[in-house]
Amino acid sequence: MQLHTLTPDLSVSPQVMPADMDAIKAAGFRSLICNRPDGEGNDQPLFTEIEQAAAAVGIGAHYLPAESGKLSDAQGWQFGALLASLPGPVLAYCRTGMRSTTLWALSQADRLPLAAIIDAAAGAGYDLRGVARRIADTRRTPLEVAEAEHDVAIVGGGAAGIAVAASLLARTPDLDVAIIDPADVHYYQPGWTLVGGGAFQARDTVRTMGSLIPRGAHWIKAAVAAFEPERNAVVLEGCRLVRYHELIVCPGLKLDWHAVDGLAETLGHNGVTSNYLYHLAPYTWELVQSLRGGKALFTQPPMPIKCAGAPQKAMYLSADHWRRNGLLDQTDIRFYNAGATLFGVADYVPALMEYVRAYRIGLHFGHTLTAIDGPRRVATFSRMEADGSRQLVEEPFDMIHVVPPQTAPDFIRASPLADAAGWIDIDPATMRHKSWRNIHALGDAGNTPNAKTAAAARAQAPVVAHNVLAALGRVAGEARYNGYGSCPLTVERGKIVLAEFLYGGKVAPSFPSWLIDGTRPSRLAWLLKERILPPLYWEGMLKGREWMVQPELADTPAETNQPA
């Protein structure tokens, strides 16, 4: 926990955790203000979790969410009014502390000299010079002044961002590359399913961001607030500006916990869990171990979501544990899927259905989770009827694993880069933006019709790296992405159905069938997932080593508007 003092009555900090409350109380704080909207990060506890933990130690917590780069004068006024009404001292937090600092500055614009505001922020470690004109009430953003300029700017330091930066620098070590991301830590998210199944420890899925930034890349530790593609610029939180020659956008996606009524209030309690959050994957395993019979529900929202197999991976590993411990007969397992099929690639469904029957799982298609009453332990689903109408269905549960609806991040959906659905509008083969030729995208935020998996990002990174270098005149030819994705479906502890496919659901195995038949459960595939893929991720993908994913080059450049 990092505390930064702005005034004797107000400090700011990056994201706090429920476990920090005792230390916050010991530091003398009596009130908390949360300025970070729920769902910005997969390691972020929901405000209700913070509120409950704060109340347990006698601290009042208040929710004043502010979207990065869209702070209004009204929000500044609200922050000031809230600060004046609360017992102090007060701790305000967001992702990095920058939004909280900016809101304080806006609230003080008519009370303190501008120099005093800038100096107080600087003393706390926050540079507000980019919003000086805004604080001075000129209502202007200084877009003509750039903080930096780079050959390539990469928005997002997740799997896709680090991988593409590493691929660029492996090809052209002298390239001026900047990665823009405010996070201090990086997560191996494919490991969270195994954490929830008791096969991995959560701590083994985490490394510091600083240890992963490729040698030679600049790390701009800030959040992106907006895009100005006509100026070849991105605007950072605090109105700082970064210009680029080529831009790569890969910020991941947003988990929309508030799309399900009551979910945010009960998540992490009352038997409600999700492997899609770092700090809740261990809770999944606790629930699985403690269940001694009863009803266990597993949900899948409408597509698109990251790793479409993850909802049922959690279900199979849980069922396998109950089977091994003689509890399967006492456990009613049900899978509620908003879609119409068990898995999107038909070749893998027969093997999965064998496990569905063996675990006696009740399949309920066309069911979308709409609400959860945690204290009552009741989930409400909207069920699609044959005539197209919908009916609400209530189901009691002893535990429920929830996968939330997912969208592109807010700053992407509101940007000129987005399509009508809010995703980055890119060509599915070249990964180039359809309107801005010096912008490429990869990873979960793009609108390509492939599965949103780490394996897809690994295959996309060399394609984007090559095409960006071609645009800069460093290489010739055009690379194409064929839609490759992979989903290791953990059907039991020790066996996996290794699904690999291209655009259109075409099966694309990486191994001969005598070694790993992806359509059948395999012990070797489990060893690949457990032992090989984590080091391949850390030491291969994130280091620019393109083992088995060298990009395919087209003979002549050409744009495509349909999947290959």
UniProtKB/TrEMBL annotation:
Pfam families, per the entry: BLH_phosphatase (PF04273)
The lineage's top-level taxon is Bacteria
Residue ranges of domain Beta-lactamase hydrolase-like protein phosphatase-like in the record: 3-109
Quote the PANTHER family the UniProt record gives: SULFIDE:QUINONE OXIDOREDUCTASE, SULFIDE:QUINONE OXIDOREDUCTASE, MITOCHONDRIAL
Q: What is this protein called?
A: Sulfide:quinone oxidoreductase
